[in-house]
Amino acid sequence: MAALTGTTVLDLSRVLAGPWCCMMLADLGADVIKLESFDGDDTRGLGPPFLDGMSAYFACCNRNKRSLAIDLRAPAARPLLEALVRKADVVVENFRTGAADALGVGYDALAAINPRLVYCSISGYGRDGPDATRPGYDFVIQAEAGLMAITGPADGEPTKVGVAVADLATGQNAATAVLAALLQRERTGVGQRIDVSLFDTQLAWLANVGSSALFTGAPTLRRGNAHASIVPYEAFRASDEAFVLAVASEKLWALACDAMGRADLAADPRYASNAARVQNREALCAELAAQFATRTAAHWLALFDAAGVPAGPINSVGQALAHPVAQARGMRIEIDGIPMVGSPLNLSASPPRLDRAPPRLGQHSDEIAGECGLDAAALRAAGAMR
């Protein structure tokens, strides 16, 4: 039995943050019913690539769900919606602020039907505040919440991260909040509303960089693959290709110097502590770059691996997916012919379930209507469902 078996989640969200949250809950065993418009989630059309009509984008965040194609504006859809709400534990939505209320699926309306409901709203800038009505898109949030300012070459343009990290992190925060609210409901018997935003999440995910800005008030700088507070902690080029080296403690610095046969660096007062190495970054990294350029990346990686010093190749996405660790950890899966990246959640007594492929639009409409005691044909004839 999975951890959330017996929990029902209504996924009224689309694109990435909300669907990602709901897929995590589905992987943990929840019955996630994805309520889609007749046009479907936007990501169904985002491609190529497609596989048998399904986009890779949609597949990445919608496994283990059932799809109900419903027109929330149709009066005939209301009995079906209310039946679902009465049996639901969680609702996740990411409509523009005010849109859920206009559709009759806002928190107040649904909590009146089911006071135990945990209702999670995901938005760009929060459900209150000066930008509550602005649409939220990951790219804009990466720019506006400070991430692009610290990403990219030191002498280049600000750069977004290669995947939608603000969306994904917000989805994970939403899932965490939902689980906490479900736990509290066990004590109180009532649900609550959750308000999670991309902006808040990305600002919090500035982590040590944000903290440093608060400590000093100084502008933050882009450092490419280097680290603002740790040296050496960056990419270096060997004679054939680049690799990364992460020396994040004094013990690791001693081990690295020993592995490289550089007792002189270990004894140099300019490099005696991390703070000193940060102060003398350019001189030290020039020394290391010159040495690394004399041998292949494979040589240095083997040497550091033997010494217990963190270092690794810069893999392509394909190489990462084919990595022995990915294979051993079950991170590459296939369900009904749809290849996917697996779940990173490993629970010994209640492992994730990975048994339902991302659904076709409306694939489970009849099934879900029947479970609610309603006539699917009549709902379809009334324009409420497809």
Provide structural commentary.
The protein has 386 residues and is an alpha/beta fold. The chain has 2 domains: 8-205 and 336-381, Rossmann fold; 233-313, formyl-coa transferase, domain 3 (2-Layer Sandwich). Helix content is 39%, strand content 15%. It has 18 helices and 13 strands. Strands 5-2-1-6-7-8 form a 6-stranded parallel sheet, sandwiched between helices. A 3-stranded antiparallel sheet has the order 9-10-11, with helices on one face. Helix 1 (17-27) links the parallel strand 1 (8-12) and strand 2. It is elongated, with a radius of gyration of 25 Å.
- State the helical fraction: 25-40%
What is the approximate shape? elongated
Number of strands: 13
Characterize the main sheet. 6 strands, parallel
Give me the secondary-structure category: alpha/beta
Alpha plus pi helix count: 18
* CATH topology group of the largest domain: Rossmann fold
